[in-house]
Design a protein that fits this description.
Number of strands: 16
Bound molecules: FE(4)-NI(1)-S(5) cluster
Oligomer: single chain
Helix content: 40-55%
Distance between the termini: 44 Å
Largest sheet: 6 strands, parallel
Shape: globular
Length: 624
């Protein structure tokens, strides 16, 4: 039996878990308990239900069931499952990117007045970077030309996705050598489904290398397109102050939570809450205003660009509703637990879905598109205002005081703070004031104590003069621990503290949502290109300490395939194959110059990462 204090270290989470218990609300931890112990075949990746001769469970130790009905052994079964796992994650990021792209095309073709271009300079810069002749083209024509170029990246005729041109030449050569150059984003995902159909690719290593290609098509393709096009449409982030935890909810206001991933819907909801006529309605209903706060990555998108407060990360999504203070949760897609509809049903909370590809029975569906988004957003906010009168004050408990944070560190902002060139950062790295840079990214997983690994790993790394970049749900953990404020430099080692104080920045920089891990790839490429190195030569690493999702697996794999050593707090379902496990933990080093490490303990993980950073520094002739 796990005590509440074993589930989460935070006051807001603990109080809401207790409240849910009193009010009979079923939570993710209850369901995990019911599901434990898990099927050991599934845990090891040794089940196959991809055809109807099965389903099969492979027992590599034998003597019976060593092969599936088709003859697939443990290695092939694990590889097929993992390949599809990565492809699903890459598909999710890339399809999200496609929605931004379709919006960009609609702007370019004059089909929408609801959306426009907020960062014309970035549009121009990226057009030029990718070889579009912008001379004489209007902003609208540029948007259209860039959209058309990116649409090609999704198809099957491009030799490589456009942004792979950002990678160092050595990296691109290596991708060519191993057949990992990402071609079409959709093509490579589809090809993974094809290869893993019964009787196609029966070589586990070949499937894994293609998984690398699929993942690279996400990192340098779909995700990077999502990031850059979001900046073009909604603005490139600049440092901004905000707040985090369930204390951002307001007892005296209409609370609307945006949840999901794309900024397309959440930006419109935010805009609607700022309209005077709508605000007046909220006041008529007895509220002092409308409070919008974020969950998960669409929250990160609004936080980065607009300074909108974050209510919580993945494991806080049910608990946010348990406060009884939320009038509406409005979602697009990804990481939205289906249970939220039931939790919302225990309170007065309206649950609204907005995408035709993500419907939730029991919720309210309001389909948003680029023609009706502004109107639909108004409708939704008015519905939330109506719900305010249904709030039961006896059920309301806002459990904590908000923590303050700084966000908005896009690469443009980081390089801007450095005077427009990576030179000062290279110098700091060379001198060992900043010994390395680590991206701590990804989710929460109820199998692990909430945010525990995120926070303790980050604290340990900054102590060792390693700068941390945070994205996704890791961000909320960092914020709650006070690590996203410049004052946290006092918790860093002397060298990192000096740099942070000189620049007025925190030792943990929030660089965005999960698709914005592409910003980390990009800045690694900028550093490597500037120093004439490959990414795998740099003293950098990544960590997804509490990951759960297919998307996180795609991110981990594109990081490794890009040359970035990557720590995971939990293994993917591959342990049933010693061949694939050895490949992941060692063999990939010989292919990509980087591999995975699996370690649930934060201090041990910090040690592993530090060892790797030391080795890279020594190889460069820099002080360890
Ligand atoms: Ni990333 Fe962001 Fe969070 Fe995990 Fe889900 S919200 S896309 S997948 S849970 S970090």
């Amino acid at each position: 039996e796990r005590e509440i204090s074993d589930l989460s270290p935070w006051e807001d989470a603990q109080k809401m878990i207790a409240k849910a218990g009193r009010e009979g609300v079923n939570l993710v931890w209850d369901r995990l308990k019911d599901q434990t112990p898990h099927c050991t075949f599934c845990e090891q990746g040794l089940t196959c239900s991809k055809c109807v001769m099965g389903p099969c469970r492979i027992n590599p130790k034998g003597p019976k069931k060593m092969l599936g009905v088709c003859g697939a052994d443990a290695d092939l079964t694990v590889a097929r499952n993992f390949g599809r796992f990565v492809a699903a994650g890459a598909a999710a990021h890339s399809d999200h990117g496609r929605d931004l792209l379709e919006t960009l095309a609609a702007i370019g073709e004059g089909k929408t007045t609801d959306y426009g271009i907020r960062d014309e300079a970035k549009l121009e810069r990226i057009c030029k970077e990718l070889g579009i002749d912008v001379e004489g083209l209007s902003v609208q024509e540029r948007a259209k030309a860039l959209a058309n170029l990116f649409f090609e990246d999704y198809g099957c005729r491009s030799h490589n996705v456009a942004f792979s041109s950002r990678a160092p030449q050595k990296r691109k050569d290596l991708w060519e050598r191993f057949g990992c150059t990402p071609r079409g984003i959709d093509r490579d995902c589809v090809e993974m489904l094809h290869r893993t159909h019964m009787g196609v690719d029966c070589d586990p290593v070949s499937i894994c290398l293609h998984a690398g290609r699929v993942a690279l098509g996400d990192g340098w393709g779909g995700s990077m397109i999502a990031t850059e096009v979001s900046d073009i449409i909604f603005g490139t982030p600049k440092p901004v102050k905000s707040t985090v935890n369930l204390g951002v909810l307001r007892e005296d206001q209409v609370n609307i939570l945006v949840h999901g991933h794309s900024p397309i819907v959440s930006e419109m909801i935010l805009a609607a809450t700022r309209e005077p006529a709508i605000l007046a309605k909220a006041k008529e209903a007895g509220a002092t205003g409308i409070n919008i706060a974020g969950l998960c990555c669409t929250g990160n998108e609004l936080l980065m660009r607009q300074g909108v407060p974050m209510a919580g990360n993945h494991l806080m999504t049910e608990l946010a509703i348990v406060t009884g203070a939320v009038e509406m949760v409005i979602v697009d897609y990804q990481c939205i637990m289906p249970s939220l509809v039931n939790v919302a049903g225990c309170y007065h909370t309206k649950f609204v879905s907005t995408s035709d590809k993500a419907k939730f029975p029991g919720g309210i569906h309001m389909e948003f598109n680029y023609n009706n988004a502004r109107e639909k957003a108004r409708e939704a906010v008015l519905m939330a205002i109506e719900a305010y009168s249904l709030r039961d004050p006896d059920k309301v408990e806002i459990p904590s005081k908000p923590m303050s944070i700084t966000s908005g560190f896009s690469n443009e902002a980081i390089l801007g703070a450095l005077g427009g060139t990576p030179e000062p950062l290279i110098q700091a790295l060379q001198a060992g004031k900043v010994r390395g840079v680590v991206g701590i990214v990804g989710c929460n997983n109820p199998k692990l104590k909430h945010d525990h690994v995120h926070v303790n790993l980050a604290q340990e790394l900054i102590k060792r003069d390693i700068l941390v970049l945070a994205t996704g749900c890791a961000t909320v953990a960092m914020g709650k621990a006070g690590l996203l404020e410049p004052e946290a430099s006092s918790r860093a080692g002397a060298g990192l503290a000096e740099i942070c104080q000189a620049l007025g920045i925190p030792p943990v920089l929030h660089v965005g949502s999960c698709v914005d891990n592409s910003r980390i790839l990009h800045i690694c490429a900028v550093l490597a290109n500037y120093a004439g190195l490959d990414i795998s030569d740099l003293p950098v690493a990544a960590s997804a300490p509490e990951w759960y999702s297919e998307k996180a697996a795609a991110i981990g794999l594109y990081a490794v395939a890009s040359g970035i050593y990557t720590h995971l707090g939990l293994p993917p379902h591959i342990l049933g194959s010693s061949m694939i496990t050895t490949l992941a933990l060692k063999g990939l080093d010989d292919v990509f110059g980087a591999c995975f490490a699996v370690e649930p303990g934060p201090l041990q993980a910090a040690e592993l990462i530090d060892e790797r950073i030391k080795a890279k520094r020594v190889a460069l002739g820099w002080p360890a």
